[in-house]
Every structure is written in structure tokens, then in C-alpha cells.
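Record 1 of the preview.
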Amino acid sequence: MIPKRWVLSIMSLFGGMNLASLRLNLSSAIVKMVTDASSRGMVEKGHYNTSGFHTEFSWDANQQGLALGGYFYGYAVSQVFAAWSGRKFGRARVMGICILTASILTLITPVLVKKNFVVFIAARILIGAMSGSYSPLTQGLLGVWSPVDERGKHLSLMSIGYNSAAALVLVISGYLAEEYGWEYPFYCTGAAGFIWSVIWILIIYETPRDHPRITSDEIQLIETSIGHEVGVDRHGDVKWIEIFKSTRVWSVVLASCLEHMPIFIFILLPTYLQDVFQLGVEESSSLSGIPHVAKILFCFGLGWLVDLVIAKGYRSSRVRKLVQFTGHLLSAISLITAVQVTKSVTATVACFTVQEMSSTVNVVGISASVIDMAPGFSGLISALCNTASAMMELIDKSSRVQSRVALDQEFRTSLLGAPHYRDIMERWFKT
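->
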């Protein structure tokens, strides 16, 4: 029988995949939904073969940016409230209801977008807000379910679920949109989220002692590792002043913000390879996929390695600090080196690969440290970290959203003129 703490991790892995699908389904569907002014002008001039290519909505670049960015606005502002609600009413229950709501909104998105653009944007913002519950609430649940020397494994599974699904969702959603219509990415991802939410609500419990089918040995293992009966302070008042006065809290918030800064650079890697090395779209897209794959594989092994070191008796705080510092250092060195090797494509891709791999230390470093320092409040502290990081993304949203729009435009342009959809999907997957 699978230990119940691992059931939670496996469900969290699929929850991460579900979260990626709710976020990214629009990125592929919008290709078939929209034609903007520049595309219409080129089509009218006969530059593309538009046979079989039909679009329903004439949104300009700003509207597309708002549609693609709406999710992030909701995601950024909902973190702390979701963590507080989970602590008050039960993390497992609140997250199940939130993702269930987001999934239902996704299922009816085709109806909403046909009805009114403003209603559609409001729905995307609400989907983002509901999805914002995932990270702080799963972090809070792991705070009361995972032994100290297993947290790296559990957190790595969560991260792998989201990162591996991110590319897969784009491929599947793109195929569904092309073969069956732009509505189907929303139908399928919404249905998957609905099913996952129902299963989550039925089998996931707030604490080990709440679970009716857990063994006494597993309860003892978890509570002995954490050092007290977990979950007993769930309904206690949150001492916000003490949290905001804590230098330890601000240290992880700052580290989390710094960890997200290289993301702004990495998302522009395909454009960088095209501009600096004059590579074609296909080649630059293929090379840009290498760091992403390496990141997933490295994260999988790093969680196991860190837990193994901690199990040997080394103090967890020192191990996590060392891993986090090393990751930040390697990330900085790789980015600085990247601008010095502009004559070598291989060296540049290698630098970005090292940078992406080193970014995974955040999982076993900052995220695990938050649970270590305050298991009962890990959801709230994680929410503060995620909110600060999300705000940084919104501050720099012009690069993220506009680059996303540019990639969508590039994909759409290629699709209009390409003879084979499979080739285009492979390029989009690698991008």
C-alpha cells in the first residue's frame, strides 16, 4: 500500500500538471481564435495560404496581451488570501474547491469569450486567482505531511509536474485546436481539472491524524520527524506583525524574488538566438528546448540527493543554504558568461542550460526552508514569497506578455504559410 504522504505528493504532481494546463491552454487556442491587424493585412495581400485557417476574433496585440496576461493578475493577488483561507477552513478542502471552480470556468470559457470580451477577461483573472491557491496550500500541506528528510523529494515531484506539463500542454492543446476547433483545449483541460479536483477532495486530508486509513507507524514517522503533533495550531490566530518583523521571512522573500529574475531573460532566449546568431526560427526553437529538458531532469535528481545528505545527519538549514547559494552563484556566472561567448551557439546554449538547471535549487532551498522554519505557517510564508515574485513579473510584464504575444504571432504566421502542421507543432513545443 502506498504511504498516504506519497499519495499527497503524487496528487500534487498531477495538480501541477493541471495547473499548467489551466494557465497555458489559451496560449495555443489563441492561435486559432485570433487574427490581428498585421496578420489580416498580410493575408489580404496574398502572402499566406489561408486554406482551412479560420479565426473568430479580431483582437489586436494589446487585447491579446490582456487575454494572455489576465491569468497572472489574478494569480499574483490571490496567494496570501488563499493561504489564510486554507489555514482557517482547511487547506485540502479550500484548494479542491478553488481548482474545481477554475476548472468549471475553463469549461465554459468558449461560451464566455463568445458572449463578451470583458466577461472573458474577468474569467481569466478569476481562473488565475483560483489557481493561485495551489502553491501556498500544497506547501502548507507538505508542512504537516512530509518528514524533514523527504521534503526535497515531495517538492521536486510538485515542480516536475508543472514543468513537464508546460510543454506537453502546448502540444496537445495546439493539436486539439487545429484538428477539432479552438474550444477543445478549454473543454479537455477543464474536464481534466474537474476530475482531478473531485478525486483530491475525496482522498486528501488536512493532517495525518485526520486520515481514516493511515497507519499508526506513518503517523509516528511524520510526527517524530517534525517534532510535534502536526496541525494542532491550524485554527490559531495568525501573528501577522511577528511574521512581517521576522528577518528570516524577509530573507526567503528576497531570495525568492532574486530567483525569479533570470526567468525574464530566459523567456527571450529564442529571440536572442535569432538576433545574435542569425538562426532561423526552427533552429532557435529547438535549441531553446534543451535547457528546459535539462531543468526537469536535474530537479528530479537534486531533491533525492539533498534528502540523502540530510538523512546522513547534516543540519537541514545548512544544506539548504549551501545549495541555494551555489545555485544563485552558478546562475549569475552562467548569465555573465553568456554575454561573453556571443561567437559560439553551443557555449551560449550551455550557459543558459546551466542557468536553468541551477534555478531548480529554489525547490529544495527556499521552498523547503519555508517548511523547515515554520511548518504550521509555511503556506502563508510561501504565499508572501510567491506574491513578491509575481509582483516582479507584473512589473516586468511588458517583456513577458509581449514576448508571449510575439511567440504566438510567430507561431500563427508560420502556421499560415506552412505545409505541415506537425512541423510547426514540433517547433512550438521546443519554444
